[in-house]
What does this fold into?
Amino acid sequence: RFRRGNSSSSEGGRRNSKSFLPEDSPAQLMSEVRKSHGGGGGVAGAESLSKTSRFLTTSRMLRLFSAGVRAPPAGAKVVYLQGAWDMFHAGHVALLKRARALGDYLVVGVHGDELVNAVRGLSLPLMALNERVLSVLGCKYADDVLIDCPWAVTREMIASLNICAVVHCPRPDCGEDPHQARELLGDPYKVPIEMGIFHEMDSPVDLTLSDILTRIHQQQDKFQKKIAKKQEAEDDYYANRYGFRGEAAAGPVGAAVGAGKAAAANGVRAVKKVVNTASQAFQGKPQ
It folds into this structure.
């Protein structure tokens, strides 16, 4: 049910840790703040943000989310759309709905963490690949997901997935510069354009990841209280179910939970500073 793309597309991120972002852009500012709080370059720096989440993906979880996935019927017009889908939001949903209307079956490609990190900056993606995949699978307009899809849409990929139309949204989701990314990694849509199956399509909902970060900054106190309440609920869950709470627990399991709690708290503080810096850069800047 799941198709996994090759990871060669993310080699650019490993060969060149430079992000494809204009100088002093919001995402670049987030990168600098992340580095100042102990994050290294590349995926290692972004990974510490992912550690703030306790979400665990099991094969059972994947089966539950993919329960409605079916193979495309014979003769179906398959549409392909790829992206990062970070912090999956209403703008993404609206775009998937519009793309789905072009055909009978929509395959959504989800870029791997390294590729997103290389294109958008050292602090992105905020959600790990498995979380972003499940987010897309939860959308009723996505019929199937291509996990860790390659940067470029190739003829082999089009043939193997029976793709009839390739859709691209030209609007950046987080202030990245797509032209600089294409200069180094190449045009990802060169083949579909040559084959005459390329379609450029914008989301009808004017919402981006940049907007979400700005809103978080504006409601910072509210979100901090929400996060604190969530952590308290998690502690109560572990205490009621397993009989221990945070660092007070005995044994290796308890120690791991305590360490996770401390890491989560550090992550929340880091994200807070990242959002503060990024949101200040977003103020008055056209999207």
